[in-house]
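Is this the right way to post structure tokens for a design question? Let me know if I should format differently. Anyway, here goes:
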């Protein structure tokens, strides 16, 4: 068996740093991804270890390493966004897979779509959609939370940012379904092509008759005096769907898994609505679920370990959120003083949708708990966690007493 044989270890990797670890397999039978990552870190693995799986790469688990790597884009490139190297899309998804200074040129094109007033406008349609979805689900007394709610709301946001007509929602949902739940990998690639086809029609329309929306801004944007080509335009629009859909759905799933098992926290949120913003921050810290990847740009040393140009490092964001200071950071405490968590990353690629994500979580908490205050995980449900770039519980069946308002 080649994996996890040490036979083909790169010369610079000391055998003592090798752990048999598959970043796409997590031991979290209760659906708690972040706790599983903390268990891995506390199991005695080296702060920076090497695994032979998925093409061979480092995993950063040590204290302070997550932030240190993400903040140093000169040493740790975003050229690779996942392991193995062959799994990275060509052309790249932008600005996610670009490094400064090019990164900044494209990032600033999306920034204006995420200002507080723009987010506020998107919030209104997300709230209306959320209320409609929840009110349709409530009388049923059960749902599959991820498909029935968590993946639906971000579609409204995506459509709002691009100012797409409501009647296109079914078509976009179909494309998203093929991207998120492909039967074979080719279906996913076809989904991206369909998305590009759809959005490029809109680009051409908005070039002719521009509006206030992000498609119009990108359609008319210039870099070094030139309008953008199709490839970067497609990359920019896909990033919104990719970064904004899976992540919010995944985060809502982990929050709901927790709330379904904690009547005390549900009650606290209902009885003290002013706690909602602290609760969101605590959920974000506690439920981090993105595993980032970086490629070493130049030979360097980190935590006493030699890294070579071209090495890949998986950087689990949850491990930026659980300081090793003896406190119980796994406990969910809405009154906890805030810490700088890594859930939205750090450094030049810090999440452009952080404000929007917080708004979406708040809308969910407010509207769901007002209509379905008590709910539980359906008996016998398996809360298997799926790990890609972002971890998620793909299927989360819930039950509640119908019409129990
Ligand atoms: C809870 C939900 C979310 C989480 C946990 C999350 C997490 C992250 C993380 C960790 C990064 C850094 C990537 C890196 O360093 O390589 C990132 C980047 C990004 N996120 Fe989010 N995100 C969320 C929601 C959203 C939403 C709703 C949007 C917009 C629709 C969005 C848009 C982006 C974009 C465009 C980037 C790329 C920024 C850049 O490369 O400069 N995200 N996100």
């Amino acid at each position: 068996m080649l994996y996890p044989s040490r036979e083909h270890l790169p010369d610079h990797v000391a055998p003592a740093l090798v752990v048999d670890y598959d970043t796409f397999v997590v031991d979290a039978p209760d659906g708690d991804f972040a706790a599983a990552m903390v268990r891995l870190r506390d199991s005695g693995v080296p702060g920076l270890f090497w695994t032979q799986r998925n093409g061979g790469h480092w995993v950063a688990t040590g204290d302070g390493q997550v932030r240190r790597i993400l903040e140093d884009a000169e040493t740790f490139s975003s050229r690779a966004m996942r392991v193995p190297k062959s799994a990275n899309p060509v052309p790249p998804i932008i600005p996610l897979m670009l490094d400064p200074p090019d990164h900044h040129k494209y990032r600033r094109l999306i920034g204006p779509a995420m200002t507080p007033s723009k987010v506020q406008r998107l919030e209104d349609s997300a709230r209306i959609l959320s209320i409609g979805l929840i009110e349709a689900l409530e009388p049923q007394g059960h749902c599959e939370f991820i498909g029935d709610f968590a993946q639906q709301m971000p579609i409204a946001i995506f459509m709002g940012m691009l100012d797409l007509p409501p009647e296109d929602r079914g078509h976009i949902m179909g494309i998203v379904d093929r991207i998120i739940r492909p039967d074979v990998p080719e279906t996913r690639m076809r989904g991206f092509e369909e998305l590009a086809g759809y959005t490029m029609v809109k680009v051409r329309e908005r070039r002719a008759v521009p509006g206030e929306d992000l498609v119009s801004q990108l359609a008319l944007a210039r870099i070094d005096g030139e309008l953008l080509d199709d490839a970067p335009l497609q990359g920019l629009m896909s990033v919104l769907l990719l970064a904004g859909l899976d992540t919010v759905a995944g985060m809502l799933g982990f929050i709901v898994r927790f709330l379904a098992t904690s009547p005390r926290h549900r009650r606290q949120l209902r009885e003290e609505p002013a706690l909602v913003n602290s609760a969101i921050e605590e959920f974000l810290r506690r439920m981090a679920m993105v595993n980032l990847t970086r490629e070493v740009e130049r030979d360097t040393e980190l935590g006493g370990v030699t890294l070579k140009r071209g090495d890949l490092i998986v950087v689990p964001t949850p491990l930026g959120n659980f300081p090793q200071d003896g406190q119980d950071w796994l406990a969910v405490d809405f009154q906890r003083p805030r810490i700088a968590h890594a859930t939205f990353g750090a450094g030049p690629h810090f999440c452009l949708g952080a404000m929007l994500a917080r708004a979406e979580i708040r809308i969910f908490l407010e509207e769901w708990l007002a209509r379905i205050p008590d709910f539980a995980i359906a008996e016998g449900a398996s809360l298997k966690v799926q790990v890609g770039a972002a971890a998620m519980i793909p299927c989360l069946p819930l039950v509640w007493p119908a019409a129990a308002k």
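Format looks fine. Someone answered above. Worth noting: The pocket of protoporphyrin IX containing FE is lined by residues 70, 78, 95-96, 107, 110, 239-240, 243-244, 247-248, 251, 290, 292, 317, 343-345, 349, 351-353, 356-357 (CB under 6 Å). The chain has 13 helices and 14 strands.
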